Amino acid sequence: MMLIPTYHFRDIERKPEYLQPEKCIPPPYPGPVGTMWFIRDGCGIACAIVTWFLVLYAEFVVLFVMLIPSRDYVYSIINGTMFNLLAFLALASHCRAMLTDPGAVPKGNATKEFIESLQLKPGQVVYKCPKCCSIKPDRAHHCSVCKRCIRKMDHHCPWVNNCVGENNQKYFVLFTMYIALISLHALIMVGFHFLHCFEEDWTKCSSFSPPTTVILLILLCFEGLLFLIFTSVMFGTQVHSICTDETGIERLKRKNQPREHTGNWQSVKEIFGGDFSLNWFNPFSRPCQPEIPGDKDLVRQVTSLSDTDNTETTEEPSEDTKDEDSVEVIDE
């Protein structure tokens, strides 16, 4: 059985009546490098605020319920420093994942003039997104929340209010890793604190009343256990996607079809920014900047319609528009 790369599986709509590049508005003049990226989505903004609130709640309980009232100063300093460092790295990774352009394709570049400038030859096609009027490079997918096509889009995560793509996947992986670590750390400290309070007088275990202390610790335990499981699973799936060079969307589209496993150590280094070093765990270091697809990279070579046998064809071109020697603009 032939092995086919997963990113060749595409849902293609062949609707000539909708392929109207003359209606596309040319893209605006690109902004300066480093311009902040932010998605104005109410649900995503609310989820991002909840994320920060939960981390700050954990900070409050760890510091003011468990560590500061403790008479073991060495224990408090070591655990307080470790927990605050991990929390800072988690929130920094969250900000970078949320405010970094995930790899958006230039919007509105599928104009008639631009398509004509590509000088397509017989057998060559370009894929056009009818939603954002962009010519899509290989492995790009449209996000209905960001309203843009994203290169190597894995999924849209409301918790970071952004897509996870080729430019910010490192930050998302670090965010899930650090959240899992502080969740595990908080659970361990809650366990030790309960054991200590059972042996000592509860009134000496915390500056709060015993009922309040128990409620705060139970809520933190529930939060830590929930997010430890959730972020550990997300971290594992992201690492697997990076190692196999297969995004979540590509994995869903592939279903049970076999594919070539093209992932290697090089793809891991590209995501995390070079050879293994401490910068891999630094949310302030950039990943390797991918090459921006040139005009030639937007053109695909299709030898026959059988190359798209694994896609859904909703409508074929009419006989008067179908020509063996014509080039195709495929509405995807």
UniProtKB/TrEMBL annotation:
Residues 291-332 are annotated as: Disordered. One of its GO terms (cellular component) is membrane. It comes from the Eukaryota. PROSITE patterns: DHHC. Residues 128-254 form the Palmitoyltransferase DHHC domain. Its main location: membrane. It catalyses: L-cysteinyl-[protein] + hexadecanoyl-CoA = S-hexadecanoyl-L-cysteinyl-[protein] + CoA. The chain crosses the membrane at residues 45-67, 73-92, 171-194, 214-235. The keyword Acyltransferase applies. It holds the Pfam family DHHC. It is found in: Membrane. One of its GO terms (molecular function) is protein-cysteine S-palmitoyltransferase activity. InterPro entries: Palmitoyltrfase_DHHC, PFA4/ZDH16/20/ERF2-like. It is a multi-pass membrane protein. The keyword Acyltransferase applies. Keywords: Acyltransferase, Membrane, Transferase, Transmembrane, Transmembrane helix. Residues 309-332 have a biased composition (Acidic residues). Its EC number is 2.3.1.225. The DHHC domain is required for palmitoyltransferase activity. PANTHER family: PALMITOYLTRANSFERASE ZDHHC16. Belongs to the DHHC palmitoyltransferase family. This is Palmitoyltransferase. The lineage of its organism: Eukaryota, Metazoa, Chordata, Craniata, Vertebrata.
